[in-house]
Amino acid sequence: MKWCALSLIGWMLVWLAGCTPKRGDIRVVCVRDEVGNYILKWETAPQLKGQVQIYASSTPEEFDMSVPDLSAKIEEGVTTFITNDNLKRLYFRLVFDGQYQYDVSARYSFMDNIQNFRDLGGYYTDKGMQIRWGMVYRSGSIERFDDLDSIRLHDIGIRTILDLRTEEEAATAPVSFASAKVVRMPISDGDTKEMMKRLRANTLRKQDGILYMEDKYLQFVTQDYEAFGDALHLFLDEANYPILIQDDLGKDRAGFLSSVLLTLLDVPRESVMRDYMASNHYIDVGFFAKDACSMSTDAQETITVLLSAKESFLDIAYEEIDRKYGSFQAYTAKELHFSPDDQTRLREILLK
Q1: Run of H or E including 347
Q2: Are strands 26-32 and 70-73 parallel, antiparallel or unpaired?
């Protein structure tokens, strides 16, 4: 499967780096192999002994706790839940030594024709609360979804697709999904036509690409705040959930909005950045190789920049927020019109 270029070890490193324990020093990771089996891995410090009981569910909030679906010795640190099904998504509740409970799922979902599809659930806040699984997803544009992708989308119950692409992008590749409403919040992706023209003319270098991307993220803060603010208010209505945030690759506009959402929920900056950077693992660069192979080395390096998430891109946006507004809270209140009461409501919906 083309989405499995990232090794299982690589997936685990991404997850272990991004998970903050709810209590105690226990870290839990869940990934899926190519046939759909779930690999559950945990670390404890100091080393706990005893059993970890594992309960599986097709919904993130309801678990039958009468009999565990699987159990393992805590000191083993890993076990596999066999499903041989890469269509249906499962959630797991792990109970360590009868007292420490953690809910987890595989953040990344296999999709045949959708880039960068993943769940924003599972992250822990500074106060030890967890974002509910299965409530907010982010991805690239879903317009190419096939029958199997459609089954996967139906299975997770998407109700609202928040489309951040421009009017031109949406007209070229319209998105519709029978069981979900599509809400359009157009946000500029920069002058992509001029960018492609310069790439083909070989008048664009890697550093030009970096500056182009940094300017785009500055514009998110200085020019596009109204659209981002309107988008955020969709998350205050429980009837809209589950919500999918999408743009062309699910990397920039979706990435910035996701970072704002996580920050409003008090997710540590380190975890916010890791979620943003994870796009580098889940965007299939090979998908664009055919167009790039005929271009110069300079152009190919620039394309790599344009397809990448870099810490400096997100950093420059938040540095501008601090410089211009003094704090993130002042920015969200003044430009996004997202009040402290709105923030409280958001946390009530998404945290547990």
Answers
A1: helix 340-350
A2: unpaired
DSSP 54-88: EEEESSSS----SS-SEEEEGGG-EEEE----SSS
pTM: 0.90
CA distances from 280 to 118, 213, 229, 284 (A): 13, 15, 26, 9
Q: What does pLDDT average to over the chain? A: 89
CATH fold for domain 1-106: Immunoglobulin-like (2.60.40)
Domain parsing of the chain, residue ranges: 1-106, 111-352
**Rounded Cα distance, 264 and 295, in Å:** 42
Please state the φ and ψ torsions of residue 179, each to the nearest 5 degrees.
Answer: -95, 5
Strand 78-81 and strand 38-44: the pairing is antiparallel
Residue pLDDT, tens place only, 241-296: 999 999 999 999 999 999 999 999 999 999 999 999 999 999 987 666 556 666 67
Strands 51-57 and 118-119, how do they pair? unpaired
Q: What is the largest CA-CA distance in the chain?
A: 66
Torsions phi, psi for 237 (to 5 deg) = -110, 115
Give the Cα separation of 181 and 252 in Å (integer): 22
**What span, in angstroms and rounded, lies between the C-alpha atoms of 152 and 149?**
5
The candidate with the shortest Cα–Cα distance to 227, out of 267, 208, 254, is 254
Cβ pair 137, 350 in contact under 8 A = no
Per DSSP, the three-state class of 184 is: strand
Let me know: does 140 contact 246? Beta carbons within 8 Å: yes
Question: Is domain 111-352 classified as CATH 3.90.190.10?
Answer: yes
* Residues 119-178: tens digit of each pLDDT: 999 999 999 999 999 999 999 999 999 999 999 999 999 999 999 999 999 999 999 898
Residue 232 to residue 224: CA distance in whole angstroms:
13
Q: In terms of Cα–Cα distance, which of 228, 248, 231, 234 is closest to 142?
A: 248
Handedness of CA 178, 180, 184, 190 (dihedral sign): negative
